[in-house]
Amino acid sequence: MVRLAVVLLAVAGATSVLPARSGPAGTPDQADVVFFEGFDAAPLDRSAWNVITDFHVNNEQQAYIDSPDTIAIVTGDEARGADGGALRLRALYRPGETRQLNRTFDFVSGRIDTRDKVTFTYGTAAARIRLTAGEGLWPAFWALGAGRWPDTGEIDIMENVGDPSWVNAALHGPGYSGDTPLVRRRPFPPGEDATGWHVYAVRWTPDLLEFSVDDDVYYRVTKAMVEGHGRWAFDNPKHLILNLAIGGAYPQAVNGVERPYPGLPAETVDLIERGEATMLVDWVRITR
Hints:
- The structure is a single chain.
- This protein is mainly beta.
- It is about 5% helix and about 40% strand.
- It is built from 3 helices and 19 strands.
- Residues about 1-20 have low confidence and may be disordered.
């Protein structure tokens, strides 16, 4: 039997699920939806989402800040193609403006998560997302357990490093973290790329993780496959994360760029300076 638990610490006496909100056309039966965020009205709902700051890993080149410049609900032309509004995470070039963790950053961006507010164990997590093409941009939609990484288990539902022709899914855990062997690229078919709207999803059961783009399943990872590398770390509650990182270890490993920033060529710096480096999220949904 599929188990799914949702924890809402922000609302005293809350039920086990968030209040139902209207979903997009073609969504599962309402009874199966245990969390839905449509990003249709500002400001960001902080009963469900945390804004992350003072956090740095992977030699990424951005500081995450809590600002409407980097995290906003947008509508109209800015959310073109969305069903109503959309979450916009945006990277900006602000050299030397932000100092965090004893380091000064030239870029700022946005990261939000549902830790301690919305968590789930098994079920399907999906989001409709549109990315910007730009070598070295590192947007992601992923799930993480509470506790020490990588023991807590990480599910990368969608990652991209600025090449619009593909996205990837990956798993990290004890014995298979960092340059994980449990990773798969998914190329887009002719006429499509990551700059269009796509639904990225993972279906998670007690012994299987199944990744899809627009309902096309392209990677299945069984418990036996994982245990060939280390302990299965996917029986504990996970929270969701949406972020737009800039440069750093993974983009650099793919593109080999060292200057002007690790993993980030000058052309992408120009794109960021123009305010055009964004990750748009139409909606996020968890179903049983």
